[in-house]
Structure formats: C-alpha cells, structure tokens
Design a protein that fits this description.
The chain is of the alpha/beta class. It has 2 domains: 65 residues, Ubiquitin-like (UB roll), CATH 3.10.20; 147 residues, Rossmann fold (3-Layer(aba) Sandwich), CATH 3.40.50. The chain has 7 helices and 12 strands. It is elongated.
C-alpha cells in the first residue's frame, strides 16, 4: 500500500531562477543622466569655489535723517554670512529693517565682490498717544520716540485701534482742509466716543453714534460759524439729532453772536 502511494506521488519541479534585464537603451539613458547630474554638481561646486569670494565692500544709499551710516553699516555687516554667491540677501535686509525708523530695504549683488543697499526711512505722519509715531500708511513704527514732533497731529485711542483712528484722521483731514480748517488731534475713547481738535484749537465732540452724519453736519452748518468766530469758541458739540451747540470762551461772546444773528435775520426780513 505504501509502495503504491509512493508511486503515485509526482516529483517536485524545480522553480527556474528569473533574471530581469533592463533594455540596453534604458540603461544607457540612466547612466547618461547620472553622469550629467554628477558633472553639473561638480561644476556647481567648482563655480562656487571659484567665484564665491568674500564680500569686500558695501554701497548704501539712504537719506540719513533719522538713521546713521554707522547703524546701517553695522546691521548689514553683522548679517553677512557667506561669500558673494552664498550670502543671504534676505538676512541682510531683515537685519536693517529691524532698525528703528527704517521703512524699506533692497539689497543686490554687484560683481565681483560688492553689495548695493538702498534704504528708505519712515515718513512720520502723526503722533500716537504719549510717544508713538505713525507713518503715512497709519502704521505704528515707533512706540516711544526720543523727541516729540509737536508739529504733527496727535492721535490717541485704545492700543488695538491704531488703524481705526488713523483711518478716521485721514478721512477727516481732506474735508476740513477744504473748509479752511486744520486738524491737530483725533481721539477715540475707551467707550468708543470720537473727539477731534481743529488746527485753531477748537474741540469738536462727535460722540459714539452717527459719526459720519455728524461730521457732514459740522462741515455744512457749523464750520461757517466756526470760521467767523474761531477766536471766541472753545468747543462745538455735535451730539444732537438735528443741530449742535457751541461752548464760548466768554459769556458775552454768546450774546454778541446772538445779537449779530438777530440783526442779520432782521435785515433779511426787511429786504423781502
């Protein structure tokens, strides 16, 4: 029985070894690509070695009104971290832009071993709070200036409302100039109330609501009165639905203006 089973078993076939061969054309292409890559890498290394010479000179174009030549040179020199080809221009730019009063910086290479740097300084447009300065874009670029620029308008408000106050200042400045009135201060209180001070020192109270409507009413109705009596007026309160009130420096000024208005009204009535 065992012998029969042994005869029935078939011998195992040997598994042939399979060898994969790439086409000769593909092998040649791959070999060529590797050779080219190695050649380019070596050429790049040789080029850097030959031309990546140390930086030997800096040319800096700047206004030098608020930032000194020494400050710019030191900031640029401290950031140079390589030769002519490998030096990181962005690192130099960021080092100079970190200086106070620097606005924009451009850096470029000048063959064979020089750098050319152009620096534009900030243009202060207004003061912020007790010591800050805003540029022409309404950005706070100095938080505590060494010297106060008293000729600039003063803006004030919550720390997180810098752009809001700056935008309001820009919106008011043009129309007030057209009305013959300057603008020396804009303030936003913690409660959201607006107050402006004109170039002649008169305070205009706008409040928290309907600010745009109140500004329009001031320009069309109150501004002519202010222009005629600016030396007598202390403040103008626009926080009314359809009118405004004037705070006079002296009580008699109010009586004089009322008498003047009454006389003008009588003259107009008599001419009808």
């Amino acid at each position: 029985m065992a012998a029969k089973q042994a005869r029935r078993r078939k011998p195992r076939r040997k598994t042939p070894n399979v060898v994969l061969q790439l086409p000769r054309r593909a092998v040649r292409v791959m070999t060529t690509a590797v050779i080219v890559a190695v050649t380019l890498t070596a050429a790049g290394a040789l080029t850097r070695a030959a031309f990546d010479v140390p930086i030997t000179g800096l040319t800096i174009d700047a206004e030098y009104q608020r930032v000194s030549s020494l400050q710019l040179t030191e900031a640029a020199s401290d950031a140079i971290d390589g030769g002519f080809l490998t030096v990181r221009l962005d690192r130099i730019r960021e080092s100079i832009e970190a200086l106070e009063w620097v606005d924009t910086v451009s850096v470029r290479r000048v063959w064979p071993d020089q750098l050319h740097i152009v620096v534009l300084e900030q243009k202060p447009a207004a003061r912020w709070g007790d010591g800050g300065l805003l540029n022409t874009r309404g950005e706070l670029f100095v938080e505590s200036a060494r010297h106060q620029l008293e000729e600039l308008p003063r803006l004030a408000g919550p720390a997180n409302e810098v752009h809001t106050v700056a935008a309001q200042y820009l919106a008011l400045r043009g129309p007030l100039i057209e009305a013959g009135l300057g603008l020396s201060a804009v303030t936003l209180s913690e409660r959201g109330a607006w107050k402006v001070v004109l170039g002649n020192g008169i305070e205009v109270r706008l409040g928290r609501q309907q600010t745009d409507d109140r500004v329009d009413r001031f320009l069309t109705v109150a501004a002519p009165v202010v222009a005629r009596h600016e030396s007598r007026i202390r403040y103008v309160d626009m926080r009314y639905s359809n009118g405004f009130s004037i705070g006079w420096k002296k009580p008699e000024y109010r009586r004089d203006v009322h008498a003047e208005a009454a006389a003008r009204a009588a003259a107009l009535q008599g001419n009808r």
